[in-house]
Every structure is written in C-alpha cells, then in structure tokens.
Design goal:
mainly alpha, TPR-like_helical_dom_sf, 2 domains, about 70% helix, Methane Monooxygenase Hydroxylase, Chain G, domain 1, Tetratricopeptide repeat protein
Length: about 170
C-alpha cells in the first residue's frame, strides 16, 4: 500500500496560514477567544479538499488544541472525525497516529475513557510505542491495556492538566 503524498499550497497563502497559526499561539492564553478566531481563520483559508495539503495537519491540530482549551470539544471531535474518515477512506497506508491520539485526548476531556481507549489502541496499531514518545505515559498505558478502570483513568487524566501542556508546547514551538 502506498503512502499518501500531500501537496503544497501557493507560497503566499501558506505563509498567511502559518502567520495566523503563530499569532494564535502567541495570543493564547491571554485571549483564548482571539486565538480561536485566528486558528479558525487559518483553517478556513485552506482550500477544499482540505486534507490533501501538507499544511492541513499542523493547522488542524493546533486549531483542535485551541478548541479544546476553550472547551469546544464537540467541534474538535467533528473536525478530527473528518480527518480520520479521510485517512481511512483514502486507500493509502496510515503512517501518522496523531489524529487518533488527539481524538482520544479530546474524548478524555469529555470524560469518555472507553471511546478514548479505542482511539489509543488504533494509534498503537499504527505507530506502536514510538507514536507515544511525546505523549503522557498514561496514553501508552491505556493503548496497551485490555481493560480499563474508567474512574482511575479520568483521575489520572485530570492530573495531567493538558491545558498547561498545550501552553508549554505552543511556547516551545515559537
């Protein structure tokens, strides 16, 4: 099975999208609504079909993180579901587990550890332990487990403070 090749956008458009993403990252947490507006604008600038462009993944995942930060997890689930359906329906080999991990994190934010477990198991099947190298240890533990104590998982997840991690990651990427 072939690996999907992504296309580049016109350089000027790509620069505008990158700049909006950087502005969104710098705006958070000072004005999380403005950060969301900038991330939404960057997402809206990506032409249809959105999932064929090289910049799509980075832009979408940043947008989803900001949506989650602002407690708009349902919109995150919708966007990630579109991405996952596109990946699975493309006929290409899936080599990136990040959409599945991000979906699991979003589901954990919604207190749905059972569903999150399924997405983490899928991520593990795609990239094994290597897919989790930059993730909290809890995610790999969940991916490898056969059964979950859902209450314990939610307590461990709450202790992670994913919003603090998001802010730290955004700052590190500047």
């Amino acid at each position: 099975m072939d690996i999907r090749m992504y296309h580049d956008l016109e350089a000027q458009l790509e620069e505008v999208i990158w700049a909006l993403g950087e502005e969104a990252a710098l705006t958070l947490p000072i004005d999380s609504d403005m950060a969301e507006e900038k991330a939404q604008k960057a997402w809206d600038l990506i032409p249809e079909p959105k999932h064929k462009w090289g910049i799509t993944g980075v832009t979408l995942h940043q947008y989803v993180q900001i949506l989650n930060y602002n407690s708009h997890m349902q919109r995150s689930v919708e966007l990630l579901n579109e991405e996952i359906l596109d990946l699975e329906g493309s006929g290409y080999r899936i080599i990136h587990a990040e959409p599945y991990i991000q979906m699991a994190e979003t589901l954990l934010l919604q207190s749905k550890p059972g569903l999150a477990h399924k997405y983490l198991q899928k991520a593990y099947s795609i990239g094994s332990a290597r897919a989790f190298r930059d993730q909290p240890k809890l995610y790999l533990k969940m991916a490898k487990s056969k059964a979950l104590d859902e209450q314990d998982i939610l307590l461990q997840f709450a202790a992670l403070d994913v919003n603090a991690k998001l802010l730290s990651d955004l700052k590190d990427n500047q």
